[in-house]
Specification:
The complex is a heterodimer. Chain A is of the alpha/beta class. Chain A folds into two domains: about 140 residues, Aspartate Aminotransferase, domain 1 (Alpha-Beta Complex); about 260 residues, Aspartate Aminotransferase, domain 2 (3-Layer(aba) Sandwich), CATH 3.40.640. Chain A is about 40% helix and about 15% strand. Chain A contains 14 helices and 17 strands. A seven-stranded mixed sheet of chain A has the order 4-10-9-8-7-5-6, with helices on both faces. In chain A, a hairpin with an 8-residue loop joins strand 13 and strand 14. In chain A, helix 11 runs parallel beside helix 14. Chain A is globular and about 75 Å long. Chain A starts with a helix and ends with a helix. Chain B is α/β, with parallel strands linked by helices. Chain B has one domain. Chain B contains ten helices and 20 strands. At the A-B interface, helix 12 and helix 14 of A face strand 19 and strand 20 of B. Chain B: It comes from Labilibaculum antarcticum. Chain B: Pfam families: SUFBD_core, SufBD_N. Chain B: InterPro entries: Fe-S_cluster_assembly_SufBD, SUF_FeS_clus_asmbl_SufBD_core, SUF_FeS_clus_asmbl_SufBD_sf, SUF_FeS_clus_asmbl_SufD, SufBD_N.
């Protein structure tokens, strides 16, 4: 049973747009994904018919919005197989989720001289929050390196962990290289030494089935907009006992039980971490996006995207002077590349004029670029609504650019 | 600090209140162009950093000052002997003087020039030679795309007009000295028009100078039309004091088989913004756009270039180099546009920068817009420090470190200087650059005026 790509493409209105008079070829899915009609319609429906602030009202509309928001929480819970829906905290995105854990977990568990481990593959959003807390707590940030294929040197992890190590923060999939990291193994090694693990799944929930209970992961974060949902909504999954022990990070309405000027007691999970009016309509939109993905089937999506990756890799490697960065055994549909003698920025700009959207630069992973001794790459990242024909357009586009940049 | 709206409103008021002075003495064509440009200025205003093309140059502080504006010609007391600070020894030139953007009333008739060549003020040309003037004035500059150009067009009263008739070759370069001299802070508007007819050849050397320590803002627009088979060189030497702002926009249109070389050398000046616009509007054109900037203190130079290949089989070649020290900031933007029909285009571009201090900064941004298929380009931008290996090599041969650094910087800059197609000028600028890099004096070394640069 293969995917009906034409039907799928019809679900995404933006794919019919012309860019510089040419059909859009959208290969910037690792930065953000496009939204299907089902998600857009859901947002519009709520704004048109049901909008009302949640958890406070006694009236019909408020109950309708509240139900929508809590239903979205259950959709997320089932999607990643969390034990309880209150282990799902809605945030503004993966970045805020990491910041929440770094601050709140850090506050509670990290002391002077303790250690935090991140990988060399991380996005800045899984480095900087840890640097900040380490600075504040006089703790040490350590780095698990990767090899030239872009694979984590997992055999070094055991030695890196000491009895002062409190948490390991690692991404499931690298946004700039596409490497799929062995998170199950990382969690095993860490747990054997009583170290907690945060997994950044911003680049994986849209490609891979994730079961947080089976993984036994302590924290997992992702963003809505990278899984075909709205911007400004994200998820933090945390184990109930950890979240209960952690102090609130933001204060405000919604996260309190009782307030006097002497003392405030905090609300229960998940509301303890959701101060202020939540982004409930986007949470409902995220629910719709996850349902859309589930209806197609994540395994099918993964298989088809892998086909695209293999096709594109072979095609691109046939171009003289083209080098792919990130050649791990296990990869998702992300290709970072450079063509000898052509700056990534030029390549991106000229491809754009052909209607092809790719990303250029460091992709918020400067340490990865430093590892390879480069300033940046061109990154093409595919989704299940992309086609082999579009990859041909990219291939021909790159050839055209190569021809333009003749050596003087 | 005034906000941009206040600045724009002040100009609108100036335009309305000074209407009589502005219109007076200008030809109808100039005034019609002026009126249109004023409407465009009201839409655009002075560009702010929100405008992508002005992202790295904040013009608000430059404009936020109670400048005087000369809407009519003011006698300026210039001792002609003073001018030789910009004289080029052994360079036999025809010299023309402009003061505060106006054609200098005491300029001697350039009798040495070949027959038919016209060199005079723009205001005079508009009235005396309306057919030639109206066919070109306001045709190449784009006031609808840049508020600075719109402002210049709205306030333009005078500047330099040069006409070189068909087949005439001017052997001796024309040297234009732009003097800013005033007893008050001044905003000068200058509008030049150069017309090089078929098979003609001319070289123009422009030297910008400030003669007094007052704060200056000079907003200059130059339009150039280069007819088929003509050859034209334009050298600009920017050498003003650190309290001045130079806004210099050049619009060049090239016709079939023409050959143009521009070289803009920024030695001194507080804030400099150069807009280089080239339209290759006929087949088989060659355009070479060069530039160099040597910055220290808190100087800022921003070179914006736009090369528009409208016709097939043209070659454009762009090279800008900069040496930056102190807290200087620089920017380079290189836009190359190759239109759909401009097949067989060759477009080369490069920008190299040497940063000598930790605080110096450069923003370099190439931008290619290519709609044709058969195009060859190359470009590169580099930002680096002094080559330690080369330094070691020189020092190992007994050259002291200071001198070795000097040699390397000079060699770096020389690549742009050697593109000058006027031999004596090349030597002269070599010497100026050498002095400038040594930081010995901050003005032309033959300057007779101690203008406290």
């Amino acid at each position: 049973m293969t995917l009906d790509i034409n039907k799928i493409r019809n679900d995404f209105p933006i794919l019919k747009e012309l860019i510089h008079g040419k059909p859009l070829v959208y290969f910037d899915n690792a930065a953000t994904t496009q939204k299907p009609r089902q998600v857009i319609d859901k947002l519009i429906e709520y704004y048109y018919k049901y909008n009302s602030n949640i958890h406070r009202g006694v009236h019909y509309l408020s109950n309708k919005s509240t139900d929508g928001n809590e239903n979205a929480r259950i959709i997320v819970q089932n999607f990643i197989n969390a034990k309880h829906s209150h282990e799902i905290i809605f945030t503004s995105g993966a970045t805020e989720s990491v910041n929440l854990v770094a601050n709140s977990f850090g506050d509670r568990y990290i002391a002077e001289g303790d250690e935090v481990i991140v990988s060399e593959l991380e996005h800045h959003s899984n480095i900087v929050p840890w640097q900040l807390i380490c600075e504040r707590k006089k703790a040490v940030l350590k780095v698990l390196p990767f090899n030239d294929q872009g694979e984590l040197m997992i055999d070094q992890l055991d030695d890196l962990i000491t009895d002062r190590t409190k948490i390991i923060a690692v991404n499931h999939i690298s946004n700039s290289l596409g490497t799929v990291n062995p998170i199950r193994k990382i969690i095993e090694i860490a747990h054997a030494k009583n170290v907690r693990v945060l997994v950044d799944a911003a680049q994986s929930v849209q490609h891979k089935t994730i079961d947080v209970q089976e993984l036994d992961v302590d924290f997992l974060v992702f963003s809505g907009h990278k899984i075909y949902g709205p911007t400004g909504i994200g998820v933090l999954y945390g184990k109930e006992e950890l979240l209960n022990e952690m102090p609130p990070w933001k204060g405000g309405g919604e996260m309190i039980q009782e307030v006097t000027f002497k003392k405030t007691t905090y609300n229960e999970l998940p509301y303890k971490f959701e101060a202020g009016t939540p982004n409930y309509i986007d949470a409902i939109g995220l629910g719709a996006a996850i349902e859309y993905v589930q209806n197609i089937g994540i395994e099918k999506i993964d298989a088809y995207e892998h086909e695209l990756l293999e096709y594109a890799t072979e095609k691109l490697l046939s171009i003289e002077g083209l080098k792919i960065y990130g050649t791990a055994e296990l990869k998702t549909s992300v290709i970072s590349f450079l063509v000898k003698g052509i700056h990534f920025y030029d390549m991106g700009m000229l491809l754009d004029q052909m209607g092809i959207a790719v990303r250029t630069g460091t992709h918020c992973t400067e340490p990865v670029m430093q590892h390879f001794g480069i300033d940046g790459t061109v990154r093409a990242s595919f989704s299940f609504y992309n086609t082999k024909e579009e990859i041909d357009v990219l291939y021909n586009g790159i050839l055209k650019v190569c021809k333009m940049f003749a050596v003087k | 600090m005034a906000d941009i709206n206040t600045i724009n409103k002040d100009f609108a008021d100036l335009f309305e209140q000074g209407k009589e002075l502005l219109v007076n003495g200008s030809s109808d064509h100039m005034n019609e162009t002026r009126e249109k440009a004023f409407v465009q200025f009201q839409e655009l205003g002075v560009p702010t950093r929100v405008n992508e093309n002005y992202k790295y140059t904040n013009l608000i502080p430059a404009f936020d000052h109670p400048y005087n504006v000369n809407l009519r010609y003011m006698e300026v007391d210039v001792d002609l002997n003073d001018i030789f600070q910009c004289d080029v020894p052994e360079l036999d030139t025809n010299m023309v003087l402009l003061t505060n953007g106006w054609y200098y009333g005491e300029n001697k008739e350039l009798t040495e020039l070949p027959k038919g060549v016209i060199v005079c003020g723009v205001q005079e040309a508009a009235v005396k030679y309306p057919d030639i003037f109206n066919a070109h004035y306001g045709k190449y500059a784009k006031p609808d795309e840049d508020g600075i150009v719109a402002l210049n067009t709205a306030l333009a009263k005078d500047g330099l007009f040069i006409y070189v008739p068909k087949g005439v070759v001017i052997e001796r370069p024309i040297q234009v000295v732009n003097l800013l001299r005033s007893d008050r802070d001044l905003m000068a508007t200058q509008r030049n028009l150069f017309i090089i007819e078929e098979n003609a050849q001319a070289k123009i050397i422009v030297c910008d100078h400030t003669l007094t320590h007052h704060k200056y803002l000079s907003n200059s627009v130059t339009e150039v039309n280069v007819a088929p088979n003509a050859v034209f060189d334009l050298y600009t030497l920017q050498n003003q004091h650190l309290n001045s702002v130079i806004l210099n926009s050049i619009f060049i249109r090239q016709d079939t088989n023409s050959n143009v070389l521009t070289n803009t050398i920024s030695l001194y000046g507080g804030t400099i913004r150069n807009n280089h616009h080239v339209l290759l509007d006929g087949e088989h054109c060659e355009n070479n756009t060069y530039g160099m900037y040597l910055l220290d203190n808190k100087q800022h130079v921003d070179n914006f270039t736009s090369i528009d290949h409208a016709k097939p089989n043209c070659l454009s070649n762009e090279h800008f180099k900069g040496v930056m020290d102190g807290e200087a900031t620089g920017a380079f933007a290189g836009r190359i546009n190759v239109r759909r029909d401009a097949q067989k285009t060759l477009a080369y571009q490069s920008n190299n920068n040497l940063l000598l201090s930790d605080d110096a900064q450069i923003y370099t941004k190439p931008q290619l817009i290519i709609d044709a298929d058969d195009v060859k380009c190359s470009h590169g931008a580099t930002v680096g420090q002094m080559d330690e290996d080369a330094l070691f090599y020189l020092r190992a041969r007994g050259i002291d470190e200071k001198e070795a650094r000097q040699m390397l910087m000079f060699a770096f800059a020389h690549e742009i200087i050697e593109k000058i197609r006027v031999e004596p000028l090349k030597d002269r600028i070599d010497a100026l650059v050498d002095t400038r890099l040594r930081g010995e004096i901050s003005k032309c070394n033959t300057c007779a005026i101690a203008c406290k640069n």
